[in-house]
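TL;DR need structure tokens for one chain.
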Amino acid sequence: HVQLVESGGGSVQPGGSLRLSCTASGITYSKYCMTWFRRAPGKEREGVASIGSYGNLYYSDSVKGRFTVSKDNATNTLYLQMDSLKPEDTAMYYCAAVCTYLYTWDDRRKYANWGLGTQVTVS
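>> reply
TL;DR here they are.
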């Protein structure tokens, strides 16, 4: 039984920073992808940043240069360092893990497991 638990969300002023964490448990693969998605009110869920099974990194254009994704393999924890936050970054942020070879990294159909999310508010 795979479980993903996100933490680190909160409220911050524009220009501020937050660091999100997602701890995975119950994953039996030695290599697996992990990705951050977000869903803003009234919008579709979108891919934010991802670490592929072999460490390749992906970012959406909207966060490139401001957000940094990283992973601690020893603790199965995915991080998202968010700097220079903007009001348009306000969203529920979700962690997803274990992906198929189908679909692009930012397609939600690619992922088998999801966390419940952590709220980020920038205002």
